[in-house]
Design goal:
CATH topology of the largest domain: Rossmann fold
CATH class of the largest domain: Alpha Beta
Structural class: alpha/beta
Radius of gyration: 21 Å
Number of domains: 2
Helix content: 25-40%
Distance between the termini: 57 Å
Strand content: 25-35%
CATH superfamily of the largest domain: Response regulator
Shape: elongated
Number of strands: 17
Length: about 250
């Protein structure tokens, strides 16, 4: 079996290699790739492997930036600290999703799924597709409870309850926490509307969402908008006029 590992953390890659060799001593690790650019360069010049192990966040961006540009035709087992890409992973030939830190038993189960599917992978029938979709759907956990945020200092776990508001800035989306720290999230605001509990978070305008538990008061603002004061923050958020009515109903629900 010929394998490619897409992983920017050396220790994580070594763990995958050790587990793979333990599972199958004859396995051939073709290469380890640590960036979107490296993935594009390698796959454009080499034959498709039998299997890919892939992290989500790489040195220069999200692995889906690569998968959107190059069609991978072999199965992919995702191994990541992020738990919110299940259905997206399935849409990119994902057959298993290992959430870090995972153990050998979980790794073995994922490889076992590959072995079961390898004869059918290029010609999935409807029954097999629905079976895998159901498997991924069962693993989804409903509304997000936390985000794993990767920074230069490591991976930080941000509990949703501690996020006061979310804002889009210069093409990125940031969460602002109760201790006034700012973390980039790997989601659009439209995605977050689906991932976050609508009883807790409200879309104030095109660029901001707010957590109800941090709202201190609402005040009328010109042009039929509302000014939102937050506990622990000096700045105020402003609702768009088109959202004012919905905001009044939501806050009183």
């Amino acid at each position: 079996m010929r394998v490619v590992i897409i992983e920017d953390e050396i220790l994580a890659a070594e763990k995958l290699i050790d587990f793979a060799k333990k599972n199958n001593p004859s396995i051939e690790i073709l290469t380890r790739l640590d960036s979107v650019r490296a993935c594009l360069n390698w796959f454009e010049k080499n034959e498709m492997p039998d299997l890919v192990f892939s992290d989500i966040e790489l040195l220069d961006g999200n692995v889906f930036a690569f998968l959107g540009k190059f069609k991978i035709t072999c199965p992919i087992i995702f191994a990541t600290a992020y738990d919110d890409f299940l259905m997206k992973a399935f849409n990119e030939n994902g057959i298993a999703y290992l959430l870090k830190p995972f153990d050998y038993e979980q790794f073995e189960q994922a490889v076992g799924k590959y072995k079961q599917l390898k004869n059918n992978f290029e010609n999935f029938d409807d029954l097999l597709i629905n079976k895998i979709k159901s498997s991924f759907a069962r693993e989804e956990k409903g509304y997000k409870k936390r985000f794993a945020v990767k920074t230069s200092k490591g991976i930080f776990i941000i509990n949703v309850d501690n996020i006061a508001f979310v804002r889009a800035e210069e093409g990125l989306v940031f969460s602002f926490t109760n201790n006034q720290k700012k973390f980039a999230l790997n989601h659009s605001l439209n995605d977050l509307e689906q991932l976050l509990d609508p009883n807790l978070f409200f879309r104030l305008n095109r660029g901001e969402m707010v957590n109800v538990h941090f709202i201190e008061k609402l005040e009328n603002y010109f042009n039929d908008r509302l000014s939102v004061s937050l506990r622990g923050f000096d700045e105020k958020l402003i609702s768009s006029a088109s959202r004012t009515s919905a905001l009044r109903k939501w806050i009183d629900s």
